[in-house]
Amino acid sequence: MLTEIAMSVPEIIRVAEYNVTGQDYGDRRHFRYTGPPLIDIHAHVMRPRNFDKPDVIVEDNVNQARMMLDAAAEFGIARTYTMCPVEDIPLLRDAFGDRLGFNGVINKKIDEPDEAAYRLLDRYLELGVELIKFWAAPRGRERGLFVDAPWRIEAARRARAAGIRIIMVHVADPDVWFEKVYADTARYGTKAEQYPPLCRMMEMFPDLIWIAAHMGGDPEHPDHLQELLEHYPNLYFDTSAAKWQIREVSARRDAIRALICRYPTRFLYGSDLVTRPGLEREHYVSRYWCQRTLWESDWEGPSPIQDPDFTPPSSASSGVEQAWRSTPMLRGLALPPEVLVQVYRTNALRLLRLTSDAYRVQADSQEPLDKTSFPFVGEGGGEECKCK
Asked: Suppose 131 and one of 14, 156, 166, 382 were both cysteines; which one would form an S-S bond, judging by CB atoms 3.0 to 4.6 Å apart?
């Protein structure tokens, strides 16, 4: 995708959305993490679909998946958990083996019976998914996709009975969306109203691990995230959705850094990258570069990625400078090494009960892997986030 930048004279410069600042993604001197390979807990690797008609396969191959996973390997990612349509799992597993793990998204159409969701769950379970996901963004309300809908409560019970111990959820979107996309609160609810259903589910299933995607859907409010972590020991957050996190985490760098350092066992690395038709390799590279830059370095500068949810300063001038001012500042958190290894890897290893032999990476003989029990209180291809 190309972005047009107006110059001070009647001229248009077209730049790729994945690099509007001309950043050299090969320059990684600021990367500080030197530990064992990363685990990406949140991605959408699949046969590329039509964006408006997700049931329509545009590219009936794994070329985009291979391009993405090769880029991931370049950035140290050894295993990626994908939310893909159930019919894609055999093809992807055959092509990529243990480089992929699978997360089953349990959805149904509003006019379908509850059994449709249970049949989908059964298909995912038969194919060996390791966790499931309930997508419950505000724009899904009219489709009946509430996180605590009765059919999802029953799906959680059935998944638990089958041995699933982790449920990922998407319950909120950026603050700026509630000012624009979700301004009709009677239709979508307020942002605060997205969370009570999740809290009810965590209280109903205290023996399950709950991963709230995209920094819990609320990186704009670290105090809220802290309240959730304090009240629900079975709750975790992933770091996915690059543009959203760059914009909002950078703006609250010190508060988010303090939060992660206070709860280093409760955060997991995620990209939220999607294999879409026609993407160039640099699209994937840009997200991996920015995510690692954000979490592990003290790098500061304009984000290389175009962000339509960012409002540029009114003082932004035209021309080349406008390209640099049309994206939010990326301010690295420089998380300590002992925190990074947990966010990047060992938290996922612990929650998913993985070992290095399970996915053919280098031996982890010196890795501080906690193999004790989880900190319990008691005992579809998915909808992509458009904030990447």
From this structure: 166
CA–CA gap between residue 316 and residue 304 (Å, rounded): 16
CB contact at 8 A, 71 and 25: no
Distance CA 129, CA 84 (A): 11
pLDDT band at 1 (very low <50, low <70, confident <90, very high): low
Convert the pLDDT of each residue in 238-279 to its tens digit: 999 999 999 999 999 999 999 999 999 999 999 999 999 999
Contact predicate 141/182, CB 8 Å: no
Q: Is residue 176 included in any domain, yes or no?
A: yes
Distance from CA of residue 234 to its chain's centroid?
19
Inter-CA distances, 380 with 87, 121, 172, 215, Å? 9, 10, 19, 22
Look at residue 271 and give its three-state secondary structure: coil
* CATH number of the domain residue 221 falls in: 3.20.20.140
Query: 């997700």: which residue's tokens?
Result: 54
Mean per-residue pLDDT for 201-227?
98
Residue 315 placed within a domain: no
Residue 273: give the domain boundaries. Answer: 26-298+338-358
Mean pLDDT of the chain: 88
**251 CB burial (10 A radius; 0-12, 13-18, 19+):** middle
CA distance 245 to 319: 27
Is the per-residue pLDDT at 320 higher than 50? no
Number of domains in the chain: 1
pLDDT of residue 370: 35
Whether 45 is covered by a domain: the verdict is yes
What is the reported pLDDT for 139? 95
Measure the N-to-C terminal CA separation of the chain; round to a whole number of Å.
14
b/e map 70-96, b = 16+ CB within 10 Å? ebbeebbbbbbbbbbbbebbebbbeeb
